Amino acid sequence: MRHISPSRDRLALRSNDGRRPEQQVEMMEEPSDEALMAEVSARRQHAFRILMRRHMPRALRVAERIVRDPVEADDIGQEAFMRVWTHAASFDPQVAKFTTWLYRIVLNLTFDRTRRRTFQPLDAAGDVPDTGPHAVERLIADEEFRLLNRAMLALSDRQRGAIALFHMEGLSGEEAAKAMNLSAKAFESLLGRARTALKANVQKIQDTGSYA
């Protein structure tokens, strides 16, 4: 993985694996994300490094689930944290948690890239069949990862974002809606369409082996 720093020199992002016990204790004693952001606003690089270590993996996960390219996802993750550093003073813990704010930055970057890459029509409006939230959770738990990946490819970027945040990252509907800058009702509608499309895509792959 490439690295990043506030001066645009990349800082090493180390894996959580293989930490010594004293390092694990240090992690447990570290301050909250919101406290760290106050330090980042004061341009303290140590706090920025801690935030990167904690949250870069989730930024990369969400980006890759939308752009479907690990190299591009890495670029998005690096740029997202550059924006965290640059715009730290605009973060308001009374408005959103740090993770929600970070998800919004990552999503804005991914949607911007995919819009530049190809035209993506808006999701069609309409009534959403009752699929039930647990149906997709069971699908994600039970289906092979490769099958789910193929089914996700046929979703729109925003549908992939909704599935990734709610079902894969475990955000509440309210948190995911804030991250996507949507009202709760609009997010619920988007998520419903995404669930329906994902289930249909999986069924089509199982029945025919392709989307054709």
Automatic annotation (TrEMBL):
Domain RNA polymerase sigma-70 region span(s) in chain numbering: 51-118
Biased composition regions of type Basic and acidic residues, renumbered to the chain: 1-23
The RNA polymerase sigma factor 70 region 4 type domain, residue ranges: 147-198
Assigned keywords, A-Z: DNA-binding, Sigma factor, Transcription, Transcription regulation
Matches recorded under Pfam families: Sigma70_r2, Sigma70_r4_2
Taxonomy, superkingdom: Bacteria
Family matches, as Gene3D superfamilies: 1.10.1740.10, Winged helix-like DNA-binding domain superfamily/Winged helix DNA-binding domain
Residue ranges of the region described as Disordered: 1-29
Signal peptide: none
Similarity comment: family membership: Belongs to the sigma-70 factor family. ECF subfamily.
Protein name from the UniProt record: RNA polymerase sigma factor
Source organism (scientific name): Bradyrhizobium diversitatis
